[in-house]
From TrEMBL:
SUPFAM superfamilies: P-loop containing nucleoside triphosphate hydrolases (SSF52540). InterPro entries: AAA+_ATPase, ATPase_dyneun-rel_AAA, CbbQ/NirQ/NorQ/GpvN, P-loop_NTPase. SMART domains: AAA. Gene3D superfamilies: P-loop containing nucleotide triphosphate hydrolases (3.40.50.300). It comes from the Bacteria. GO terms for molecular function: ATP binding; ATP hydrolysis activity. It comes from Streptosporangium subroseum. Residues 36-202 form the AAA+ ATPase domain. This is MoxR-like ATPase.
Amino acid sequence: MSHVFADAAEVQRRLDEMDYLVDEGTASALFFALTLGQPLLLEGEPGVGKTTAAKALARALVTPLIRLQCYEGLTASEALYEWNYQRQLLAIRLAESRRDNLTDADLFSEAFLQERPILRAIRHSGPVPPVLLIDEIDRADDEFEALLFEFLGEASITIPELGTFTAKRRPIVILTSNRSRDLHDALRRRCLYHWIDFPAAERAAEILRRSVPAANETLIRSATEFVGRVRRLDLDKAPGMAETIDWVSALSALGATDLVREDVVRTLSTIAKTPDDRDAITGALDQVGHARGATT
Ligand SMILES: Nc1ncnc2c1ncn2[C@@H]1O[C@H](COP(=O)(O)OP(=O)(O)O)[C@@H](O)[C@H]1O
Ligand SMILES: [Mg+2]
């Protein structure tokens, strides 16, 4: 299908231009998803850049991002398509007043069909297929997954009143999961799969340089190292990249050029999300040589 990238290295390069930094594994997974025209399921802890992967890919391809945010209770009428009942009712009233005859075929026709993200992605016409992001699929009820099987397998959906719609060119489909529950085997079978790890120190530092350009290099290095250390603790909510970016932004806004105990304590709300984690992270701070305290 879309041979828009020559190889995984080009994926890496083009995403880098969008300030999204991937390792080889993620670049290969994206490359094969594009080349084989198959949906890609990205799993990983919150904040490792799953959502941003889809956004950056759409920007790199200069194509629309169509986003379906999943949540408990998400239904077909929000994800696939919906009949516009109000317009149907109006049409019925109008027809009555004119003594016209309205058939079911009139009422369940294109004019009353409302596209939701999946139908929109199927019918999108453009030089490049859109990127469809089905975000946090693990938040939807597990019955919802079954609604996706036809689409994931055949890039089509069937509307009983109208027939089957098949994409002329398969949309680029990225599903993400924070792994808050296990997904159906039937869903996994229809997708390529990639687990995104928390970035290694070098890449984490580079992500920080791009995201917080004002931050000092020493601060970035110390913060990266400290987050690495903190992530090895047994925390309720280990800080992800999003938290790390917030933290370094906060420290940088305070004018910090390295980790100083006082500043770290003032900015802990960005990386410690429970009282226990706050204690654990403060404890780790006291063991770090370079976190010079005002009291020492
Ligand atoms: N590889 C990366 N390159 C650049 N920024 C990243 C990367 N990974 C994560 N980030 C940044 O971290 C934050 C969280 O990423 P996000 O995509 O929301 O994570 P997830 O969807 O996995 O929870 C975003 O601000 C994103 O820009
Ligand atoms: Mg996300």
